[in-house]
Amino acid sequence: MTTGVIEGLPPDPILERREMVQRVARKTLDRRILVSKGMIGLCGIALLVGLVPLFAILYSLVAKGVHWWSLDFFTKTPQFPSLLDPNQIGGISNAIVGSLVIDGIAALFAIPIGIVAGLFLAESTSKFASLLRTTAEIMTGLPSILLGIFAYQMIVIGFDQWGIKLPGIGFSGIAGSFAIGILMIPIIMKASETALRGVPNTIREAGLALGARRGVVARRVIIPTAAPGLITAVLLAFSRAVGETAPILWVIGASTVVAWNPKKEMASMPLQIFQSATSPYVSLREEAWGIALLLVVVVLIVNLGSRLFAAWLQRERR
Amino acid sequence: MPEVPTSPSVAMSNPLLTENSKSFSVKSDWAHWSVLYGASGLFALICAVFLISIIVSSIPAWHHSGLSIIYGRVWSQGSNSFGALPIIAGTLATTAIALFFAIPIGIGSALAIVHVVPGRLRVFLSSLVELLAAVPSVVYGLWGLLVLAPWFEHTVEPDLANITGHRFPFQAPPEGVSLLLAGCVLFIMILPMIVALSRDAISIVAHDQFEGALSVGATKWQVIRKVVLPGARNGIVGAVTLATARALGETVAVAMVIGLNPLFPPSLFATASTLASTIALQFQDATPLQVAALGALALILMTMTAVVNWFGRRLVRGLAFRVGVI
Description:
The complex is a heterodimer of chains A (318) and B (326).
Chain A: H1 13-65, H2 71-75, H3 93-123, H4 127-141, H5 145-156, E1 158-161, E2 164-167, H6 173-197, H7 201-209, H8 214-225, H9 227-242, H10 269-277, H11 282-317
Antiparallel strand pairs in A: 1-2
Chain B: H1 8-13, H2 19-65, H3 68-71, E1 75-76, E2 81-82, H4 85-115, H5 119-133, H6 137-163, H7 179-203, H8 207-215, H9 220-231, H10 233-249, H11 252-257, H12 275-282, H13 288-315
Antiparallel strand pairs in B: 1-2
């Protein structure tokens, strides 16, 4: 239908090509629409297939876990079920206290180191900074059981090589805090670097132009401006640390009494889940659901809470 | 643009600053940087000691067995024989099973979340996926052990064996706790991570490119295949790589559902072991030499995950760092 505009000239190759393209496109339209619908349908099916196990886990947690929640569950210490009364298994107060103490001490030293090192990553352009960034990134992805071995070598049995002698303090909450804290530092570092880099350079420069020292600008201007991001970073790192089992597996000793002293053996919620789930007693295995539900609720509250809090703080500022 | 005197050298070369303020500014910078270098140096020191400690702890095992730790086939505490080839193979096999399911389902879900699902539901699904990525791995292990394992033993594995005619690798009696179960639990664990990261990569492909391709007559799938997926390729490959690192190193969830069998598993339905699960399950009552051998496993595991992780990080560098997901 489209020939040259002026009779006698050879047909325009571009028009010819366009015509061919349109012809092919028209001819294949039905097939292409069918393929498109099919593939998009497959994506939808993939989503449904992926959601099934995830919802199944949430369902099992709530259905099998919630009836364990009672006053005894939260306030009593565990005891082994006897033949006479196989359901008499006490509570998990030792694990709750243990988790609080271990993760609290870990947070206490990981948060300052993590945030200051994050500030360093955000402010420095040196070779050391980029090396440190790569190190932190690799550390966040390393299997956490390695930190367990590290804590075992350094804190539980102590260090005795090349004339350096550090006495070990045995299975203890401190060893667990050490492993969990080292797990948290690189996460906080990377996340707070992102938050601190988000502070507009104009604000930083305005502070410096007023004659403030770099340290003052960092303390009074940059960190408060980045506070929502920093709080999210810290809380998310904490929510990850609370659920970690592998680093504390062989270093905290798993006591069955309530222990507040971190130099003694302690218990912890994730560890308790692992031990109950693999125990030969049916009632203990079932109780693991109750602890798991508690752990997931704590993790999700911290996780969700940090996001909501940061969003709220951001809105208040405007 | 006029430069703000931010570094000491600029401040000193500025003739407008008096002698007093010059030294003041340099000094305060020094205090600030020393705090920053202190914290960073402490972290660097911890990392160095960590690396040294893992290497040192494994030395006796390398002395005892040499490189046969890597290629030996017998791992036995009684005879002090430490050959980790079956364990390394188990690690790779569980990861492969997990990726086999997680790659198509994860990328498909991410595409569906970004381009198929309507707006309100999209926000809900995105946050649900991120929350699920934060669920502790011990919970996945618990679910695998108490819910999936009986189902696998009585339904999935017998059915699979019947369908495939009991051919390798589907021939052995179903045990529930098995290589296949460990792979499936890992799949469910890394799925939220792959979905969340590749969703990020897919959704930052420019919208005008998407609409431009639609406007010249491409169907939605053609746009996804020719525009979205190439644009998001680095992010998606990075997501899969990071998920691989996580699957290689996952400890507790795998230790709960794989059993403890340091030999080559005869089939997918048999118990096996991975590097991390062996460390987790044998550490408690190990002899000093065996602790060293487990240290050697840790060193192998650390090398594997560090390399994979380093590659993955380079690929997802353009994306936001997501705590809890990575």
